[in-house]
Structures are given as C-alpha cells and as structure tokens.
C-alpha cells in the first residue's frame, strides 16, 4: 500500500485534507518558505513539482476542456477565450484550450516584454511572486463578448479569480465566465463570495473541476509551519563557515531515509526506485539537441496561441520528438522532460509525443520559482530538490530556482527544454541548472525553443528596434590578428585568454559520441616541421599565379553582378559596394585578396568583415544584426575559400532564411563566392578545378593567427558574437601577410586572362550541379561509413582532416601530382594509408575514422591502418 504523500505534514501540523476520495491520489502536502501560507498542495497531475506521465498531465487538461465545451455548447464555445495563470497553470490552460478545440489561449506572465503593451494585470495574494501581466500580441483577444475561461491548478480561496475578473470585466465586460481547476478546495464562505461577486457584476460564473474538498487548518499553523521549515533547513546547513546558503546543499534529501526516493506519486504509475546519490559522482554529459522549432510559431501562450498555431505545432511534433529520441542514449529506459517555469506546454507536448512513439518510460515536470522544503520521507510530497540560479535575466532580479523530485528519481536521461531567452551563461555555469542535473543523471540533453517576440504593430515602423549598440565594433589588427586593420574587421569576440584546446583524439571521440560539438573546443595548433614548411613555400611559388587568376575571376564576377557604388537615399551619400563578408576563418584570406583585387583593378575600397558560421548551428545572428545596422543587407557578398561537398553552402542558406524569419531583416543573399568550387555547389567561383590552395596547408599561421571559431554556451551568450583566439605567441611562424603578398604580386600578369574568363563565365550557365554531394554520398556508402560528415572531399578539406581530425584513409585520384605532396607527407606522419582511386571526381578525399574511440589509435597517436 502506498503511503499518502501528505502524511508527514498532516501528522506534524494537524492539517487535514477532506472531501472527494480522489483527492489523496491527486494531491500531496509540503511546506514552503512563504510568509503568507505555510503549506503547499502538491499536485500529482500537473507536472510541476512531481514528475508524471505526460499523457496523464495532458489528458486531464484536455478532458477539462471537453467538459467546458459541453457546458457552453458549440456556439458559445466557438466564441470562448482561455486564460491560464503563470507560472503553474500555463500548461494546464493550454491543454484546456486544446480540449475546447476552437479557443485561442493566453496566459499571464511575470516576464515583461519590451514593446508589448499590457492589456491588464492582477495580483495573486498568497503567492511568493504576485504580479501577473497580460501581454497579448492581438489587443482585441480579450475584447470580445464571448465566454472567458480562466484556468488555474487549484481553486483555493477564489481571490486570484476575483482579482482577474474584476480587472478584465471593467475593461471588457461580458456575460459569462468559466473557472477551471484540477481541484476546488474553497471553504463554504469562499464559495459564497464568488456567487455574490457574480451577482454584483451581472455575469454568470461556472466552475469545472476534477475533484473538490477542503483543507482544514488548525490555529497557529502558519507559525508552526515556519518553525518546521527553519528547523529542517538549519539541519541541512553545513557545519562550520560556509559561503553557501543551506538551500544550496539540497540536491540531496534533507533527511536520511532514501528508501522511497524517486517513487512516482500517481497510484497507477509504474514505480521506479533509485537511491539518491550519497557521495561524489562523475557528472553526466550535456548535449544540445536542435528541435527545428517551426518559424514564427509562439513558444507558448504569453502573447497568445491560436488554433492555427496548435495545428502547426501538431504537424511539427513528430519530427521534433524524433530528434530528441535520436539524441537519447540507447539504454535510456526512464527519461524526464523538464520544462522551464512558464514554459510548460511545449515541453509537455514534446514529452507526450516521445511517450507515444518510444518504449521509454517518459516523465514530465518543470522548474519553478517556488521555494519548498525537501524532506526525504515517503509521506512527504517533495523528496529532493535541486537549487540553481535564475538563468533568464528576470525582471525582479537574480534569485534561486528549483527542480523538485529529480535527484534520486532514477532517470537515465533528462531533457531540459528552455526558451532562448533562458539559454544564457547562467544556465551553463558550474552551479547552473545543466550542471546540477548532470550530477544526478548520466545524460542531460538541452533543447531550446525560440522565444517568441510579437511583430511590431501596424504604423510602428519607426519604433526602435532591438538596440544594436550592445554589439561591439569589429575587432581589427594588430590588437586582434596580424592583418592590417583596413584589411578585415572581425565580428567575433576575443577568447584568447580561455583554454579551449583539446587533443585531437579526445575531440574526435567526444564529437562522434555526441558528447560535444566540434565548435565547442579547438584542436591543438599543428606545428609544421621544416620539411612541411618547405612544401608550403614550394606550393605557393608554383601556384601563386594560378591563385591570382582565380581571385581575379571571382572578384570580376562579383563586381559585375553588384554595381560598384550606389546612392543611399536616406543619407544622400554614395557608398562602396559590395560588402565582402568572409566566413571565418578559411574565407578570410580569400576575402582580403578579393578586396585587394578590387582596389588594384578598379580603385575600390570595399568593406570587408569576417563572421562565424558553424555547421549544425548556423551563422552568427548577432554579426548579421551588426551588418544590417551598418550596411544594406543586399550589398553583402559572403566569401569562402573553397567548397567540398557543399555543407556550408546549405548551412548558410538555411541560416539566412531562419534569420530573416526570426529577426524580420531581409535582403541577405546566401550565395557564397569562393575561390574554388570543385563540388559544383555555388554559381560564383574563380575555378571549379580541385587543386591546392596553399592557405589550406596551414592553420592560424596563414589566417592572421586567428583560431577556428568557437560557439560554446558558457562563453557565448545570446547577445555575443561567436568567439575565436588570437595566437600572438605564434608570430615568429606567421606567414599570413607573406601569402597575401605573394598572390597579390601576380595580379598584373593575370589581369587580362582573368577578366576574359570572368566575361565568359558571366555569359555561361553556372548553375550548381551538386555533383560533389552525390559523389560524397556514393563514397560514404562504398566505404561503409554511412555518414557524409565524415567524408571530406577536395585538397583543402583533406588537409584539414589530416591536421585537425582522426583520419582513416586518404583517397587520391590516380596520377595526381605535386598538389598532393603535402597531403602525402602529412599522411605518412600520421600513419594514414593513401589509396589511389581511378576516376575520382576530386583530386583527393579525406575519410575520418568512422567508428573512432581513443582505442582506435596506437599509443603514439597514429591512426589505424587496417
């Protein structure tokens, strides 16, 4: 027989739960640090404090909505609007709206949103955080005369509903209200007050609940409860001096009995017990999962959620849940989807879809602002709590936040679902939510839903946009990079003082296991041998004219298709165009060479910047915001060194489309101009031959001493540029300017031929065939790799594999000559076989080890050869 999870409080305070026989299965009791009310009714059906099956949580809400529809009738239900209460009932209100089927939904919020007018507000007298705001995107949402359905988790005194109706009825009077709650716990006197209020305003107020009853409180219960809280929090405090509050130490239960830790509270649910941790543990891994949340779909009901939005979400849910399921470890049998404060509905729907489509035991709950005492006793509703700092920059300032009944609950994986406003450094900090979760489960996944920002109302074109002054000006040499300051401005942040490098083998294992993204760390910079450096100089001497020719061709095409200057009407000045924007870092030397050609051949002083793009995560949106604030987006030409299979071309196209939808800024053309396009992935190129571009031979020492770009959540906040390091210590080995000068010196001798070829190409069909992508897919299957991301075609990409990854083998076109001298040398140094292949569409292809662990290499770090 299960112990009721209100027994502990009932015995110590004399609190009684009377009424419907279902109440004890629906509610437990706990104590909270609140000067207004000592006890807390802890719902087992809400998915807030107690992890519950999402089908149970969602099912109760939908069923309540259906009952409201039956009460109102179809005609009145079609005119209804549903209003839920923050934070606890935001998901329940959404579910009720789903049950009604045709009703738009809005929930109150404690998060002010700049630029969104307040349509009302009210107080929740017993809450720890009282002020509620109503911020509908459509001001008319609450203005109709149809029924207003108000949804809360419990109906305890009726004060919150009275405050809401009083405020809204004065603005938007209507004839009918329906109050919906899981439980009605009012006293007889409180019930009478609601009826009297309804007569006073001349409206009908109905009540729909699952169960009803009362809480009987003895005299002095508030003082007794506060004393108990103080007693147990003091017991949890560390002995001796400490800078931490007692609550900081409450990842573990407050008392010692862990025999029941992690039991699910619903009587019909399967029980799983895993003792809460009692000592140091290895932290779990944290992995980000891209949901691909539908563009412009609200993340919740803060600004309104319509039936059209609901249909859009329904259509997208299977694919999003599948992405989560794919990211979960195969042995994850018990999984928690953890929502975030007011963000309850989106995580609930994801959890319900995951429960429906997988064999895992899925549970759902959310974090909360509400401070509740944790006591590890089977008769107490809050067994454990995790404490972490607020991570969404709340309007009322910093403070503690909580996740209850997660520690010790036996979850093989926890999927934290937050909105993008909460994806901040505080979330990823050592004491942040993700770190706290990782202490108690081996796998933590992070899924971020874009925070919905309402569009500016009609006629508000002159309203201030999100300020761009928060974005710093571009970094320039010599403070950042060895390039001259006029050559390039880096829209990056300087992470030179941060240790980001990891051994190649460790990085490869983490990347392929899903434990890390390649952009979260840097490879140790390759220090070339004297023999290798000589190969670079030989290659540069042999190819400088060929490179200069390709630079001339691609620059002439760009200038022909983008007029050199134009008048900006709003300012009455002529501005140079195009604006070259290199994809850091391989594109940066090419962008500088194109800028030099435009200056040499046409006397143009083109702006040039470098921005970060990360495969799988898109382009730096803040860099695009800065560019849009300082230049016309239609003037921007993206520049890269070369194409392989075209992954970055696809990434850029998707990223620009997403940026336009999210930020409302249009005009950026995702077409990339490249020096070499052996994969036939773009239409603006200098050549489609696959030959050695010497800048691919080296890393930072041919790229202004700048590292690859870094995107890691604890270093790059939502308003920060992506990061990179400036390796000042490698100045003695720097060949960046020497490379540029060697190519620029050949401009005069190739000008005539380059201009003639550019003219021919402008008249030709340059439509990409994507032959390279098809070739990569074929190679991936033929060699049993089954992952195109591990196949790196072309001389440049093969070189990168040998310098930065764990190579498996190199495929070389039969008869390839000196263009592969440096590849053969690197392969020899790393013990990688070079296999000649007839009719290879590229000069060479690098294959990353497809099933890499550190055990796949010898003790000396060389790659497997068989």
TrEMBL record:
Keywords attached to this entry: Glycosyltransferase, Transferase
Residue span, TRSP domain: 299-435
Domain Orotate phosphoribosyltransferase-like: 26-213
Domain PELOTA RNA-binding, residue spans: 770-849
Domain Cysteine protease StiP N-terminal, residue spans: 481-743
Pfam families attached to this UniProt entry: PELOTA_1, PRTase_2, StiP, TRSP
Annotated GO MF terms: glycosyltransferase activity
InterPro entries cross-referenced by the UniProt entry: PELOTA_dom, PRTase-like, PRTase_2, PRTase_dom, StiP_N, TRSP_dom
Keyword Glycosyltransferase included in the entry's annotation: yes
The organism's place on the tree of life at top rank: Bacteria
Region (Disordered): 235-306
Protein name: Phosphoribosyltransferase
